[in-house]
Amino acid sequence: MRLNISKNWIALLLAVSVGLPGVLADGYFLQSVTMVLFFAYLACSWNLMCGYVGQISFGHSVFCGIGGYVSVLLLTNVGLSPWIGMLVGGVAAAILAVIIGYPTMRLRGPYFALTTIAVAEVIRIWVENTDSAFGIQIKGAEGLSVPLLGTNWSMFQFDSQIPYYYIMLGLLIIVVLMTWMMERSRLGACLKAIRGDRDAAESLGINPARYTLIAFAASAFMTAMAGSFYAQFIRFINPERNMGIELSIDMALMSIIGGQGTVAGPVIGALFLAPVSELTRVYLGSSLPGLHLVIYGLVLIVAVLYLPKGLLHPLRKLLHRMIGRRALGDGVRVKAVALSGLPGTAQGERDE
Amino acid sequence: MDWYSLTYAGLNGLLTGAVFGGIALGLSLIFGVLRIINFAHGSFLMLAMYTSFWLQKFSGADPYLSTLVAAPLMFCLGYFVQAVIIGPLIRRESALVVEPVSALLLTAGVYILIDNLALMVFGPNVRTSASVLSSSSLMIGGFPLSTPRVIAATASLVMAICASVWLAHTDMGRAIRATAQNRDAAAMSGIDVPHIYNLTFGLGCAMVGVMGCLIAPFVPVTPNVGLGFGIKSFIVVVLGGIGSISGSLVGGVVIGLFESLASQFVASSLASIFSLLLFILILLLRPQGLMGKK
Fold first, then answer.
1. Which of B165, B226, B214 lies closest to B62, judged by CA?
2. Do A346 and A249 belong together in one domain?
3. Which residues, in sequence order, are bridge partners of residue A137?
4. Which CATH number belongs to the domain containing residue A130 in this structure?
5. Residues A122, B115: C-beta atoms closer than 8 Å
6. Which residues of chain A make contact with B227, given a CB cutoff of 8 A?
C-alpha cells in the first residue's frame, strides 16, 4: 500500500515536471525553475555524503567551482566538449575529495565543518588571486565566460531554455536514483551505522574512513557536474559565486531543512527554499536585499529546534494520515458493499 | 628585503594579532563553557561596529565612547540569543551532551539571520566611522604605528587580563568555571546552569562588542564584514586552545605575525591562505591547540 502511494506520487511529479515546458514555455519562468532544480540537485549531492555520514561540510561549493572551471578551461583551451569536460571535472573533484577527506575524516562534528570551510576558502582565495597558473588563463576574480557558439548539442549550448531544463531534470533524477540505490545497498547501511555510532560501527568491522571516503568522492563528483552545468547554463563563472561559502551554506541548508540522510528530503528542502529565494530576489531584491536569506536563517533556526529530522518527517506523517484514512475508508466501503450492500455495516468492519 | 621593513611588518603583525586575539576572546569563552561554536560571532562584531557608526552619525560620539553603549547592547542581545534560541536546544538534549553539530547549525542560522537583517536595514554600502585619533600615529622605537591599532591591541590585552582575574577570583567567575568543567556537578552544587550559560554567552558577545567599537576607527563596516573576522576567530581559538584566555591572545598574535610577514613575500590577499593552512595543520596535528591541555 505504502509503496503504491509513493509510486503514484512519483509518477505524478514526473509527469508534471516533464510536461512543464510544454505548458509554460516562458523563458524566464523556465530559467527560474531550472535554478530550483539545480539547487535540488546540489542539495541531493551534498546529502550523499554529509547527510548519510552526519559530517557537515560547509565547503562543498569548491567542488562545484572545480567542475565549472575544469569544463570551461577544457572547452576554451582544448576545445573539448563540455559533456566530457563535465565528467573530467567530476573526476578532478572526486580526487580532491579523497585528498581532503583522507586526513580530515577522523575530525568529528564541528571540527570537520570548520576544516571544510578552511579548505574551500584556501582554494577560492588562490583562484581569486591567480591570473594564470601553469600557462593556463584562470583570470582570477574576473571570472571566466563561455564563448557563444549557438545551439549545438555536442557543445552543450542551446538558444532555448528547454534543453537546459530537461538536462537538469535528468541530472536530478540520476542523483535521486543514486541516493535511492545507495540507501538500499551495503554502502548505505554502513554509512548509517557510522552516523549512528562511529565507534560501534568500527567495532563491527566497518572501516569508517573507507566508506566515508567513497561517499565523499561520489558526492564531490556529483556536485562538480552541477558546476559544469551551471557554467554552460549561465555562461559565466567566477570564484565568489561558484566557490564561495554562500553556495556551500545554501546546499547544506536545503538538505538539512528538508531532511538529511533521506532520499526525498533534500529535494523537498530545495523545492521549499529555492523558490522563496527566486521570488524574493525578483520582486523585493532591490528594496529589501537579503530578504530570502533572512527567511533561510529563520527557517533553519526553527528546523533545528523543532524539526530535527527535517521537513520530510512531518510531511510524510501528514501525507500518510491523509492518504491512509482515505484508503482505509475506500477499502471498508468496498468490503461492506461486497458483503451486504448495506453501508451501515461498515462500522463493524473497521477493526479488521 | 631589509631588516627595517621586516621589523615594521612584524610590529604591525603583532598589533593586528593582538586585535584578532581580542576579538576571539568572547568566542573562546563561549566555546569553553557551553562547548558551542558560535558561528554568529562575527555578526555580533558587525553589529557593534554599526552601533558605533550610527551613534557617531546621530550624536557625533567618538567610536571609543560608543563602547559604553555597544557592550551592554551586545550583552543583552547575546543573553537573549542564548536564552531564546540556543537554550531550548540544550534543554531538549538535557540528559546528553548537546550535539555540537546541531548547535553549530543553530548559530549558523543566527549568523545568516543577523547578517542579512543588517543588509536589509542598513543596505550594502561601505561605511566608516572616524575618531579624533584616526589619522594620528605613535612613534615607537623609530616605527610609526597607527594610534587606533595600538589602542585596540592594548585594550584586548587589558580585557584578557581582566577576564582571567574576574574568572579566577569572583563567585560568578568560579560558577562559570565550575559549569565549564562539569555542568551536572555544578548544577548539583546549586549553580543555576541555564542562567550561567545565558550570562556567559552575553559576556562573550559584550567582549566582541567592545572590540567592534575599538576597530571601527580603522576597519570600514559592511553587513558582511563579520564572517571574515568570525572565521579568523575560529582559527585563533583552535590554534590557541579552546577555552583558554591566554591561548586566544597567543593564537591571535601567531596568526597576525604569520600573515603580516607572509604578506611581505606574497600579495596581501593571498596571505590569509597561509593562516587557513596553518589552521588545518594544527587541527590535524595538535587538535588541543598550542596552549591547550590534552
1. B214
2. no
3. A132
4. 1.10.3470
5. no
6. 245
Q: Does B283 touch chain A (CB under 8 A)?
A: yes
ipTM greater than 0.85: no
Residues A126 and A163 occupy one common structural domain: yes
How many beta-carbon pairs under 8 angstroms link A with B? 118
Cell for B114? 543577523
Sequence-ordered list of residues with C-beta below 8 angstroms from that of B3, at least 6 positions apart, any chain: none
Residue A11 domain-assigned (yes or no): no
Spell out the domain ranges in chain B: 3-285
Per-residue confidence in pLDDT tens, chain B, 294 aa: 677 888 888 888 888 899 999 999 999 888 888 888 888 999 999 999 999 888 888 888 788 888 888 899 999 999 999 888 888 887 776 544 556 677 888 888 899 899 888 888 888 888 888 777 777 777 777 777 788 888 888 999 999 999 889 888 888 888 888 888 887 888 888 888 888 889 999 999 999 999 998 888 888 888 888 888 888 888 888 888 777 888 888 888 888 888 888 887 777 777 788 888 888 888 887 766 666 554
Q: Per the structure, how many domains does chain A have?
A: 2
Contact call for A298 and B113, based on CB within 8 A: yes
* Structural domain boundaries, residue A208: 26-310
Residue A139 resides in a domain: yes
Terminal Cα distance for chain A, rounded: 16
Class of CATH domain B3-285:
mainly alpha
Residues A224 and A332 in one domain: no
Q: How far is CA A260 from CA A124, A153, A195, A299, B256, in A?
A: 26, 35, 11, 15, 38
Query: Looking at the complex, does the CB of residue B281 fall below 8 Å from at least one CB of chain A?
Result: no
